[in-house]
Write a structure and sequence with these properties.
140 residues, mainly alpha, 2 strands, globular
């Protein structure tokens, strides 16, 4: 994941970049909770949805929406995302995509431990030498 909420995972035919932005989360919320409201069920947030995916207990449409929004959010044209979803989601058992959807959702919502921003801040050169670096012990 990077600071923009993108995550690259192996899905479909290889390494694929996904990104869910704040606008993408709004679309995801509308799609997923719209279906739940129509069925008389309570809405869910990203953590509840991630837990359901992790337990292989999410509806396939929810998983598909995460992948679609993530593909388009990462810059893929909607018709290309549709083609990829038809090939690698619609024609395969949905559970094959659950791990990818989980990584995309959690990566966008929570982040990943090796975030690019964290790398930049932890690998920065010190601006001045430490006082102890100038000290060289001498003999008795």
């Amino acid at each position: 994941m990077s600071a923009d909420g993108s995550t690259t995972v192996f899905w479909g035919d290889g390494e694929t970049r996904f990104r869910i932005s704040i606008g993408g989360f709004a679309e995801l919320q509308e799609k997923i909770n719209g279906r739940r409201a129509a069925a008389g069920l309570p809405g869910v947030g990203p953590s509840t949805l991630a837990n359901a995916i992790r337990a292989n207990d999410a509806w396939p449409d929810d998983v598909r929406d995460i992948l679609r929004i993530g593909l388009v959010g990462a810059g893929m044209k909607p018709h290309e995302a549709h083609r990829k979803l038809v090939l690698y989601f619609d024609r395969r058992p949905p559970v094959e995509s659950y791990l990818a959807a989980f990584a995309v959702l959690v990566g966008a919502f929570v982040g990943i431990a090796d975030d690019d921003l964290k790398k930049k801040t932890t690998t920065a050169e010190p601006t001045s030498p430490s006082p102890s670096a100038a000290y060289t012990p001498t003999g008795p």
